Amino acid sequence: MFGFSITILSSLLWPMLPSTSVYIASVVVGLILLKRTLVIAGALLAVGWISLFVQLILLEQPPNSVQNIIVRGEIISLLGSNGDWVSMDIRQSNLLNAFFLSKVLRLSWKQAPKLAIGEQWEFLVKPKPITGVLNQGGYNQQRSMLSRHIVMKGSVKSGIKLTEAVSLRSRIINELKPELAHFAHGDLMLAILLGDKSLIDSQRWRSLRVSGSGHLIAISGLHLSVVTTWVFFLSLYLLARFKPSLSRKNILIAGLLSAFCAIFYAYLAGFSLPTQRALIMLLLLLTMGLMKRFSSSWERLLYALFIILVLDPLTCMSAGFWLSFSALGIIFLTLSQWTKFVPHQEEASGARLNVKHKLKLFWSVQWRLSLGLGLLQALLFGGISVYGLLFNLVLVPWFSLIVIPVSFLCFSIWALGQVFSMDFPQIFALVDMSLVPMSIGFSMIESLPGAWMSVSGQTIACLSFSILGLILLCRVSHPRWRLVSLILFMPLGLNVLFGLIAPRQSEWRLHLLDVGQGLSAVIEKSGKALIYDTGAAYGANFSYAERVILPFLRYRGLDSVDYLVLSHSDNDHAGGAQLLIDSFPDASVISDIAKYSQLDCRPKSLLWQGLKLEILAPNTPEDGNNGSCVLRVSDDEHQLMLSGDIEEEGEVLLLASSQTLQSEVLVAPHHGSRTSSTTAFINRVSPQLVLFPAGFNNRYGFPKQDVVERYQFMGAQVLVTGNEGQVSVLFRHGERRISTYRADLAPFWYNSLFRFGEISNTE
Predict the structure, then answer these.
(1) How far apart are CA 279 and CA 271, in angstroms?
(2) Global pTM?
(3) What is the mean pLDDT of each run of 10 residues along the chain (763 residues)?
(4) Which element (helix H / strand E) includes 612?
(5) Beta bridge partners of 385
(6) DSSP letters of 491-527?
(7) Of 171, 310, 418, 733, whose Cβ has the fewest other Cβ atoms within 10 Å?
């Protein structure tokens, strides 16, 4: 089990999955070695299993020649709406292996009819691959979707409802959701009872994040453990009072009843990953306890890990997986260490000392959980909840003793009323009242300074290694392990040392971010940043500035933006302008957009961090693409041109000027459209590297193949953000180094391109 599990986890770092012949051979050899070398046998079987599993998941993808396909499935989640569009996840049912292997599609439907979870539909869908934007510090949608078996995106052209909601859970959600929506904390109540977070808005998510309390509303080990414990001891008390027995019969009945309640609660939660892990652990504990078989907590944890990875090896890609198992590992480690140092006299003392001892144990678990999960959360989400320790110290026991038992009791009363055609929605007022302390805590924390601290990925990695080194230094005495612990301190020491040493004056970087069919570039020099364009924004809840640019800046540790250049007013270039201006109020805005402009785009030269910034065009303010602000950045050796969306007319005006246009690196004008990149412009600029800011499989077909070939004919290297993800170029004396996200920064198999369903006619 250990060999199998550790190999599955290591697959997160594999550049590619083995071919069919290789994984079949690994399974055969693994079976042969089962009686000889168990760890190696488990590892080989894991190689075969995850390779086969992924192949089965990605099987039956539509070919590129098919523009529309018919799919049938059950609506399992309604994600929300943006304007006229409704997003949903459906579980496919028209597959041969649907019973054994769940496949999910993420669909969007314009002007959709009323939809409900659990309904069966037949859709005519225009398929799209799950390929998404990839940038440092940003949300990896590809990996997240694969972890949830989402194998395809698509837009619905039409749909026919086949059946109404049939499952018990979907009927409960559809009946209870409108009733809970009337309560102040109805969104949290729906999440705690049924694992449905669709009522939680962005403000509530922010409160959960800054308080570090998201785990309290995600049905997991805490919830199942509390319900199981209450049911077990309550049923045991009632059986002992009304039907006493000297045998183990009452214990068996109480155990089976609590196991049934745990399974039912997990079913209500939709058997999510944290719920699966907790349920397996609880059932193992109950089974081994009822069988009088001793097993250590670490053994049960390994059983749970192994079973979950056998059932679904892709769960290790989700953040919830690592948070869940890390929390259990920290708890078990604390308990095992605590029992070694408990004074014998305290063990034999009275109730007062026992209570004191338990409070110390609770505090020991809490601060370790807050520290460990805080670091892991920072690594996964790019920030730390500063007050999470204090908040959880109060809310965890409150949820255990009040909120969860009251919620389950009120739900049971409501469900009983439904059976007898009686409606008791007012019973949930008790649950609503029990959540008042949580909302009060949200208000208090958000009013405090520094509730959420953004931390770069490099700093978090260094801190994690240092904490591991400190633990080894305190716990082991062998010289070899002490040497290992000192080595683990080296990344933090080097990080501090490099932070004190000024970077080379000649070194600077261009980061062309992957923002879909749009443009955003960050120029980094001496810990400062210049941003050229912001990417698009859609509706009230989505902008690439929030999803890509700000996380990228946090990841790189860039907390100072000196200039924000907005080339022109098109949404795909300036959609996130206001958010960035609010985030960096000291930044100078260079633009001809009246409501943002502090410096106009008339030709001029500026000096920034030792780099020469030349605004080359336009000579007069102009609406549209040819009014784009063209920026040239250079030092004594390297030159970079950012050309916005200028078309042939704008290029002609540049060529007519006496300005120097030659540039080593060119961000191609207008995403590679045929209206730009004339031969005369290419000859004058003479780029060695051309970067196209164009989204993968975009509806315009940018960059056009003949435009790409035009640059290649002139000897230039060509890269497209939609294919490569983020493209970073390091400029140093005598050197230009290129790094792309998919090939260099994160070259893992799940970050590769999924190419099916590409647009065949983009004219």
Answers:
(1) 9
(2) 0.84
(3) 94 92 93 91 96 87 77 85 83 66 89 88 92 90 90 93 86 88 91 85 79 77 83 90 83 90 88 74 76 73 87 86 80 73 51 68 75 72 69 81 91 89 86 92 75 65 77 75 79 73 76 96 95 91 90 88 96 96 95 94 95 95 94 95 96 93 97 96 96 93 95 96 96 94 92 76 48
(4) strand 611-617
(5) 452
(6) HHHHHHHHHHSPPPTT-EEEEE---SSS--EEEEETT
(7) 733
